[in-house]
Specification:
The chain is built from 21 helices and nine strands. The strands form three sheets. A five-stranded mixed beta sheet has the order 1-2-7-4-3. The chain binds protoporphyrin IX containing FE. Protoporphyrin IX containing FE binds next to α6, α13, α14 and α20.
Length: about 500
């Protein structure tokens, strides 16, 4: 081969390399330019239905976060899709999640489909906005669910008594020597419903509470159904609307009676069921000018109470049930938790009836680890929807004003980047400060089972107390084995368990 041909070939190679570099650079600039003004990458799927069917199908599989996992792999932690009739930006990015949670009322606002808003009622805390939301959120927190309210306002004795009442009923069957069969989720729901009714309107369990619960269950089903028009009253949604009217009527009746009592007494004294005057319930708070700025009509009071009944019900009861499920599958953790709780009971001496005190609740470190871990891996609130009120710029992307956004808590909770061996149920991870450190260094968006910002769940402490009291009486009074597998078990199958 002569030297002329060699240099010609070398020239060709150099030309190809230079062209490659130029094209790559042009492409990179184009991508950066596009990203700066564009939605996050993704796919909007089929016309009209978008990726809704894929979303629904994905959640019928065994994977806990299938829809998001697959898209995060393809597009990154921020991606665009089209679900439930709307283009939606999904986030599995803790930084973005934290930003959105903190921007409520400024860059984003809460956004529920109209079928859900109708069931909730326009004046529920979940739909309130602006200054009124701020006032009512703070009232709910301080009066109903803050540590001080639980500790000082006789809430804990009520929780203790009502939890015990249900658990006692399990062993009071005529043939109590043979084991009872308990549908745990049903029982947990019964407990949370009775407790909330007690806190809101001071009614103890009885016929009134049971009939309210029957209607309420129909109402709850409506949240998970297709919203056919209301005149189709035989559909799940139609039945839910009818049930809402009945719940509304029952609550209005209570409000009227309360007003008459107050008028008769001529004073705003505190009251509680059975005539003991220990503390105000939520209704009393609202009637005594809960929202002093604007006052509340009967309709507004009903919406407000009803939403509180909805918000803490499924959430707390599923975590109670799933904590038991995880403990059943992890005997070592159950043994540790039982040891902790038996220690607390032992300190109370021979008096089996002595209720748990706030100081007892504060001395259950391992129980809190179990609750934290259950909330991390299996919270039924997997994330929340918002709508952007302005253009949002994040990591070079632009989310335009009016766009729907879903921030996924669970996708972050199950991300190995933030939690080692993330899909393993491991309550011991909470014993070292790994997660607390993450919250500080990695940003507050890493562990958010109760949301954050101005819509942070006001029931976060109350829920923990209820679950703790429930676990206390369960493990100190009962032993159990799984009777059959159900849908909750199926949902949990992908998790493994770590024994330290
Ligand atoms: C394990 C139990 C619970 C979990 C996991 C949970 C979770 C959440 C989450 C994630 C939010 C934020 C929603 C958003 O940002 O749009 C929220 C809001 C809320 N939660 Fe809870 N919750 C629980 C128990 C309770 C309880 C017991 C109550 C009763 C007081 C309650 C009342 C509320 C209310 C009223 C809101 C709306 C707050 C607002 O929009 O200002 N929750 N909850």
């Amino acid at each position: 081969m002569d030297s002329g041909r060699w240099s010609l070939q070398l020239f060709d190679v150099m030309l190809v390399v230079i062209a490659g570099i130029v094209f790559w650079e042009l492409g990179r600039r184009r991508r950066t330019r596009a990203a700066a003004g564009r939605l996050p990458p993704g796919s909007v799927g089929l016309p009209v239905v978008g990726e809704t069917l894929r979303l629904i199908a994905a959640y019928k599989t065994e994977d806990p976060e299938p829809f998001i996992d697959e898209r995060v792999r393809r597009h990154g932690r921020l991606f665009t899709t089209h679900v439930f009739g709307e283009r939606t930006v999904f986030s599995a990015d803790p930084e973005f999640n934290r930003m959105v949670l903190g921007a409520e009322g400024r860059a984003v606002e809460c956004s529920y489909p109209s079928s859900i808003s109708t069931l909730l009622g326009a004046h529920s805390l979940l739909l309130m906005r602006g200054a009124r939301h701020k006032r009512m959120h703070s009232l709910t927190l301080t009066r109903l669910a803050s540590p001080a309210a639980i500790r000082d306002a006789a809430l804990l004795p009520d929780i203790d008594r009502l939890v015990r009442r249900t658990l006692d009923s399990w062993s009071s069957s005529p043939s109590s020597s043979s084991p009872s069969r308990v549908l745990l989720l049903d029982q947990a729901k019964k407990i949370t419903f009775e407790l909330t009714v007690k806190q809101l309107v001071s009614f103890d369990p009885g016929e009134w509470t049971e009939s309210l619960r029957r209607e309420y269950l129909l109402l709850i089903e409506g949240f998970f159904s297709i919203p056919f028009p209301s005149f189709l009253s035989f559909t799940t949604y139609g039945r839910a609307l009818k049930a809402r009217k009945k719940v509304e009527a029952a609550l209005k009746e209570v409000i009227r009676k309360r007003k008459q009592e107050k008028a008769a007494a001529g004073a705003t004294m505190t009251r509680a069921a059975g005539g003991d005057k220990k503390r105000k319930d939520m209704l009393e708070e609202l009637m005594d000018g809960g929202d002093e700025e604007e006052g509340m009509t009967e309709e507004e009071t009903v919406d407000f109470l009803l939403a509180l009944l909805v918000a803490g019900y499924e959430t707390t009861s599923t975590i109670m049930t799933l904590a038991v499920k995880f403990l059943t599958d992890l005997p070592h953790a159950l043994a540790l938790l039982r040891e902790e709780q038996e220690g607390i009971r032992a300190k109370k001496g021979d008096d089996e009836e002595q209720p748990l005190a706030w100081s007892d609740y504060k001395s259950m470190p391992f129980t809190q680890c179990v609750i934290n871990e259950t909330l991390r891996v299996a919270n039924i609130i997997s994330g929340v929807f918002r709508r952007s009120m302005t253009d949002i710029h994040f990591k070079g992307y632009k989310i335009p004003k009016g766009c729907k956004v879903f921030i996924s808590f669970r996708a972050v909770h199950l991300d190995p980047e933030y939690f080692e061996d993330a899909r393993t149920f491991n309550p011991w991870r909470w014993q070292n400060n790994e997660v607390a450190q993450l919250q500080q260094t990695g940003g507050a968006g890493v562990y958010t089972p109760f949301g954050g910002g101005s819509r942070l769940c006001p029931g976060y402490e109350l829920a923990r107390v209820v679950i703790s009291v429930f676990l206390h009486y369960l493990v100190t009074g009962f032993s159990w084995e799984e009777a059959e597998r159900d849908r909750l078990n199926e949902f949990l199958r992908p998790y493994s368990y770590r024994i330290d």
